Amino acid sequence: MFVVAGVSGNTGSVVAETLLAQRKAVRVVVRDAAKGEAWKARGAEVAVASLDDADALGRAFAGAEGVYVLLPPFGFADEDPASSRPALIAGITGALRSGRPAHVVLLSSIGAQHPAGTGPIAALHTLEREIAATGVPATFLRAAYFMENWGASLGGAIEGGALYNALESGRKFPQVATRDIGATAAALLVEPVGSGTRVVDLSGPADYSLDDVAATLSGIVGKTIPAVQVPIDGLKGALRGMGASAAVADLYGEMTDGINRGHVAFEPGTTRVRGATSLETVLRSLLQR
User: What is the pTM of this model?
Assistant: First the structure.
């Protein structure tokens, strides 16, 4: 039995779909039983639990060959986005201690080896450390920057004629499609580690810069859309204008600065794998072209 959390999202749904297609026994974890009905119809068991409920989550994890977990995103307008992280970390690790699955795959992030200077990624550093302390064999799947993150910028770039971002325009950095994350996590679940922890870094078939994203977008829409690098403070101001809290804007500003400085990067010496989905494929999907 494989247990999958986050099936309402882009990665957990792919993990569950992939395992079911392989005729594996799957139990999905949902907060609302109604959200599990479609999965039940496809042959999955359904467990109702919140990630901060160690008791209920532990029962869902019990007897599992492998478990897929992730930290859900905080709200865009959350005034204190860090406040929810400790309860979620305690719930997940408490469930691992009580449920004792044979293996856990955590969706972590590029840069999670660092305790600070990475914005929202810092919580994953803590979660990796706490999962390791449970003694449950673990794989930390450190995924690159999600290609789907560009979705919020595409409409404005097409309408305004430029792609604005605080990322260094010519710096290539790892990016990955969420479908490749789910497929890789499913593969890792069925190839468990026997003890300890392993780190697997995942990126797409190539690294891309802001300039590359703008060029790819230009090719799709058939007109030139240049990349324009703005200051970090400009990014934070734009995020606040879109409804982000100051705290959330600061976290994303710190992460972007970390990418520009090479701080948010893969850890040397870890296993590196690449997905097959190109940036163009993702952008076309986001634009439905």
Answer: 0.96
